[in-house]
Structures
1.
Amino acid sequence: MDERSRRKLLDILRVLAEADRPLGGTRIAHALNLAGKDMSQRTIRYYLNLTDAEGLTESVGRRGRQLTTRGKAELESAYVVDKVGFVAARADALTYGMNFRLRQGKGSVVVNISTFETARAGHAIEVMRRVYQAGLSMGQRLALAGAGARLGRLVVQPGEMAVATICSISVNGVLLAEGIPTTNRFGGLLQMRGGKPQRFLQIINYDGTTLDPLEIFIKGQMTSVSQAAATGDGVVGASFREIPTQAAEAARRLGARMERAGLGGILMIGRPGQPLLEVPVSQGRVGMIVLGGLNPMAAVEEVGVPTGNRAMGTLLPFEDLRPFTEVLR
């Protein structure tokens, strides 16, 4: 298959991957058209026959086609260079998709989706509780689901439990709703001493990676969130953002309101044009540091409980998330 044909095939797979349900040729053509990629239904049927033959898709009758496990793997590995900057683009898309209303405490927020073995649940829950109690989580709410339950698009598999933790990108959505645009600079490892942030030890720019930085740091065993929760000294996940200078005071007030609503996570907001924890900022901008939403799962991984993590997993109603004191009993 030549390069042009392969890209068309992958465009179709990508549409199916982003759908919550099987799609027929008409719906696939409509989705492609919205993305600025014109493809006739006849052409789509041709490529679907190829993907069926290769085991990348499967027919579910009149409802259309859906991706197979092999199809998902193919889509993940194909054209990795094209995906550089994907994390930054997804963050912007989810920010725009939020409809959370801070005053009412209702609406959708961005969450991370994580899994671990049910057999290790007792240990994992205790570790997560300590992280939340230490204030090293993004917000104070989460959702926990057992086998057969659904969190966003994920159906929890037998022998597993799933966790939805608030993603730090939710801060961007709250600020945007108040007219404050946010620029995502990087995700990194933040050194804590005496419970206070000191400096970034490692950073990964959002626009130069195909994976979320904290996912990488967790699997690289580079965090010490459990230690930070127990002693105040350790290395946690955090991100660095910038906002306009004129919005700094409004952002501080919003940060306090988010904290009271259980959505807090802003650690620091800097001074206009001044470095924040040794990180320089542009003129007319203010630095802002936000805790990583996957910090509880980093602590779970640190104690030997394997986790599967998808940062910026989906949007969930804030009302579906409960205080950690209720969930992590």
2.
Amino acid sequence: MILPIVAYGDPVLRKVGKEIDKDYSELSTLIANMWETMENANGVGLAAPQIGKSIRLFVIDATPFAEDEDLEEGEKEVLKNFRKVFINAKIESEEGDEWAFEEGCLSIPEIREEIWRNDIIHVTYQDENFETHKATFSGLAARVFQHEYDHIEGVLFTDKVSSLKKRLLKKKLENISKGKIGADYRMRYYGAKRR
């Protein structure tokens, strides 16, 4: 089932998600709905807060990035198979040079900004079967993970832009929170007037 994506301005996007266990109600249905919702919106990642659930769960499908001709063969190979469920994820450490990449977010349509992030991350997480994994991601895989991880920490990519950029984006962000934008997927607006 395609769920509405929560728009910027909803307090759920600012909450730190709670850890869940294998007894979480209808988890497999929720994960299936998240995949369907993300794919319908042409996203590469979707975190539970973006569908109104303040829990530590996100899904990533970075396979579309594998088509990028500018990437090295090794990174393309990683991205080709980078379709995963992350539960109770934790970034253990970050390293490498910071690099900029233009990011967007399904909860913040029509805004894209260059965001600086570390190149390499070491993480632990559980998959949909609650098996624990330790992994190291780099490049675009690390970036998409960091973006979605921020969501379960109550952080948005627009928090990482300069104060000047924040001032320039203020009106656009207000319009998003009031539902004065046109996304081509279902959205739920916190500040929009109910009819």
3.
Amino acid sequence: MTIYDVDIDTLTGGSADLARYRENVVLVVNVASKCGLTPQYEGLEALYGKYADRGLVVLGVPCNQFAGQEPGTAAEIEEFCQVNYGVTFPITAKADVNGPGRHPLYRELIGDGEDIQWNFEKFIVAPGGAVQARFSPRTEPQDEQILAAIEKLLPR
């Protein structure tokens, strides 16, 4: 099983159909609207804009498990992302990333690894579904390590 076999809804409802990204490089990030790291949305959108035509998908997963920093409804989250950051990458429904209610997407990403530390932790998933890298919440989307990991996996 990989992330592509997991059911998760889009922010606006209906299946996100992760299987359609099987041939893409996917950067999965647990996001929040009221966090000190929220400005990373800008960098995530820039990455998506720069690499989407080469096969990168940024996938935002709202989570309210860290100090209640994603309290909004789906409509509020969508409006926040659009108005403040012009987000065009796909965003899923809210999901728990830690604990007994951990969403299956995060069970696939983490495996036996450590829990998610905070909002904006990042996972790079290669085409086919293998997790290639994991980056801390404080690692900016434009960090050279993230760019190198993405570049290594994308077609030239």
4.
Amino acid sequence: MTEHTGETTAGDTHRADLGKDPDRVSGMFDEVAPAYDRTNTVLSLGNDRLWRRANTRAVAPRPGQRILDLAAGTGASSVSLARSGAEVVAADFSPGMIAEGRRRHGDIANLSFAEADATALPFADGEFDAVTISFGLRNVNDPKKALAEMLRVTAPGGRIVVCEFSHPPSAAFAGLYGFYNNRILPVVAKAVSSNADAYDYLNESIRDWPDQATLASWMRDAGWTDVAHRNLTFGIVALHRARKPS
């Protein structure tokens, strides 16, 4: 991981933008790491736990498997996977997130942590039986390259699960969701987060992210097969699944 190059002074906070410069995004996540999980639970009205359980069921981890959990943050999703007995690598490009994850979950024998850039993964070809990324692909500056890298490190016949914010298909619900994101979420984030500006960026990144069909096409273009998705919480989130050809 390279040293952060964004110029800041004491008291300043990192605020990434849709250019998604890796140093700025990583620095932003470093700052929110201690309160990140609690803030997400508050802002998602508790749905983050439901989404995590759905993601774990889709990955279907088993003892003896090796699983890569990308954009793992503090490792909450990784712990859920590791409970199956699988060997889980929790990877994130934020040193602050990794440090917080090790502090919280470093005693779990089959869970390890690694700093990793999703566009240049430090793992061997075909190393993992499954790879998953939750709410992190849209923060990568080249998500198509990341999907190709995930294919490279997955064993033939292995699986990918991408859990990401998406676009509700119902116009009425989309309007309600937009009102919450634009008017309510910033107020709540200011009250509960250590860096409310970070959640302004995250809100922008959700609006800018493509719909379910577009992400599915990116996965196919990267070489994944049997691509499918299902919506969670009326399409606020979509769970994409695919396999690497045997």
